[in-house]
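It is worth pausing here to work through a concrete case rather than discussing structure prediction in the abstract. The textbook approach is simple: state the sequence, then state the predicted structure, then interpret. We follow exactly that order.
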Amino acid sequence: MEGLDVLDVASGEGRLSRLLMEPGACSVVGTEISSEMIARARQEHAPGGPVGHFDGLRHETVSASDEAFTLEKPAALVTALYLFHYAASEEELDCLDA
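Step two, the predicted structure:
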């Protein structure tokens, strides 16, 4: 993980995003469609927050299939731990094919 830029799709409240920062990821961008979950993630990793602050960690409210979403630099690793079990069907995931 050391030095990698990571995209955490469907990051929820950011647990995996934070775990990815601990072994030395350079940056992690967590994306999530739920603004409530993003608010929780930001609260958890805010300076002085309960789990600690990471300079390279940010969370954005955005759909995994939003074509307008871009990263500042390419991700070396993409995770989607919490994405697949919420999909109602394989067809719903087809929009993620790039």
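Step three, interpretation. The helical segments are 15-21, 35-44, 90-93. DSSP finds three helices and four strands in the chain.
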